[in-house]
Amino acid sequence: MRCSSRRFLAGAAILLLFTLAGAPAAERTLLAVGAHCGDMEITAGAVLLKHRKLGDRVILLHLTLGEGGHPKLSPDVYAGQKRREALEAAKALGAEVLIGPYQDGHIPRSDEAAGYVADVIRQVKPTHVITHWRNSIHKDHARTHEIVNDAVLLASLEDPRAAHPRHRGVHAVYYAENWEDAEAFQPYLYVDVTDELEEWKKCVTRYEFIRGGVVSFPYLDYYTALARLRGAESGRPYAVAFDVPPISRKRVVDSLP
């Protein structure tokens, strides 16, 4: 099944290069699946914001709240804070938000987890899915990557046990750039987010950990600088980069562009 999943994603990723910018807004739904609240907002939030402004539907699925990351607050207390922050950030993005049933640090690599995400995909019917890159120093990120890849395939198959009909309309899966997921990540697709940068900052700073009040890592400075770097590489002031499966690293045209 894993080989079939890779072939499915490969074809889908190529298609996005030609459809993401030009598809009618009414036909585009972006589903961003992160391991923890804040993961997708800090890495891909500016792109999600851009597409929301274009009239696209945007959904955030956080598999966990990320409640274990506060050095002083208990997971139970921090969970309530992270939930509030996630709702505020989603509202600022103009996005819908779903929070999964798993605990921080304990996302299972299981058929049950893939089935949960597949059911979300059947329900919200995304045209494009964004998630973590495959290599990470955080096991929740790596497991989320595998779960989402399996879920896209599962959601496309008939399943009499499923609550919703199959969904075969995912054109592409793209992987966001995260400092914890840097191993072997290679920028492939660049999206200009110059006009969205300041609004993105207002969105992500709903989270205390991004404002600098939880850990010492300078999240906002890092991802702002990263957007400037990717912008310089792509000839734009600011950009966000995504990777794709290695088998998808090709572009087929009838003549030189």
What does this structure look like?
By secondary structure, the chain is an alpha/beta fold. The chain has a single domain (2-248), classed as LmbE-like (Rossmann fold, 3-Layer(aba) Sandwich), CATH 3.40.50. It contains 8 helices and 7 strands; from the N terminus they run αβαβαβαβαββαααβ. The chain has a 7-stranded mixed beta sheet, with helices on both faces. Helix 1 packs across helix 5 and helix 3 runs antiparallel to helix 6 (197-204). The chain is globular and about 55 Å long. The relative contact order is 0.18.
Name of the CATH architecture? 3-Layer(aba) Sandwich
Estimate the strand proportion. Answer: 15-25%
Order of helices and strands: HEHEHEHEHEEHHHE
Instruction: Enter the CATH topology name.
Output: Rossmann fold
Unreliable spans are 1-22
Helix content: 40-55%
Number of distinct beta strands: 7
Architecture blueprint of SSEs:
Elements: H1 2-19, E1 29-36, H2 39-53, E2 57-64, H3 75-93, E3 96-99, H4 111-124, E4 128-132, H5 139-155, E5 172-176, E6 189-192, H6 197-204, H7 208-211, H8 219-234, E7 239-243
Parallel strand pairs: 1-2, 1-4, 2-3, 4-5
Antiparallel strand pairs: 5-7, 6-7
